[in-house]
Specification:
The chain has 4 helices and 4 strands. The chain is α+β, with helices and mostly antiparallel strands. Strand 3 and strand 4 form a beta hairpin.
Length: 164
């Protein structure tokens, strides 16, 4: 009989802790997911969708990253713009220090409705994520099977820990 009471106490304890831990896991894994998308330069769902490259030509098809030269077959040296964007990841501003879009994401847990809300103080994040006003879509957050799978793995691990 005492084994049954211990089991009931264990299940009651787990029932109280799992919802709180689940919200915390969803928040932490969400931030990791967004950072992973920035690192990869792509959005990961069931497959990885790479972001469109940065524009390097003007409307006439001329390279805007290099100085023009009068020598046939020769490319000019990199201009200021070209040297600033060379080897720089997409959606990472030049000279911004640590104040980058990828570092601006936070999450808020609403315990009343048991929801997790992700937000940023950068006003242009939605424009990049959804691709508004002629800007290419470079999605970094949204519904994702990969994200759901990561949450499931962590929740299973935490539940197993609680029920030992």
């Amino acid at each position: 009989m005492s084994d049954l009471a211990e089991l009931q106490n264990l299940l009651n304890k787990a029932a109280k802790q799992i919802p709180e831990k689940a919200l915390q896991i969803i928040g932490v894994e969400g931030i990791k997911f967004i950072e992973k998308n920035f690192r990869d330069g792509a959005f990961t769902d069931t497959s990885t969708r790479k972001w469109e490259e940065r524009k390097t030509e003007d409307n006439q098809g001329q390279d805007i990253t290099r100085y023009r030269t009068n020598r046939v077959g020769r490319a000019g040296r990199l201009n200021r713009y070209g040297s600033k964007i060379q080897d720089r990841a997409l959606l990472v501003g030049y000279g911004t220090g640590g104040d980058k879009l990828k570092n601006s994401f936070r999450y808020r847990i609403n315990r009343g409705s048991r929801a997790v809300q992700f937000y940023t103080y950068k006003k242009y994040a939605q424009r990049h994520n959804e691709g508004l006003d002629g800007m290419p879509r470079r999605q970094f957050m949204g519904k994702s099977a990969y994200y759901n799978q990561q949450i499931f793995k962590k929740l299973k691990k935490e539940t197993d820990k609680l029920l030992r």
